[in-house]
Amino acid sequence: MSQGRKGRMNYRCPACFMREIDMDMFYDKEKDEYYCIRCPFVGSEEEVLRLNEMARFRYKMISTRIRSFD
Fold first, then answer.
1. Which residues fall within 8 angstroms of residue 68, CB to CB, at 6 or more apart?
2. Which of 29, 36, 42, 57 yields a CA-CA distance of 20 to 30 A from 15?
């Protein structure tokens, strides 16, 4: 999904992304937290960044062709 340069950064929902669903999270200014409209995930910016980094670690070899398992 494309993102403009104005306002806060849009983050992917880590719970949905682990199930291969690309869903943007929304920011609640009053509670200072991010939430997903598709699943019940709610978290701070630090938690969202930590969980998204875990997803990047799991899928880092997705574009690499593995030819042998030696």
1. none
2. 29
Structure-token match 């398992």, residue found:
69
The residue to which tokens 């104005």 are assigned: 6
What DSSP letter does each residue of 36-52 carry, written as one string?
-SSSS-EE-HHHHHHHH
Q: Which one, of 17, 68, 53, lies nearest residue 25 by Cα? A: 17
CA distance linking residue 70 with residue 49, whole number of Å: 34
Each residue's pLDDT, cut to its tens digit, for the chain (70 residues) gives 445 555 556 788 999 988 888 889 999 999 999 999 999 999 999 999 999 888 777 777 777 888 888 7
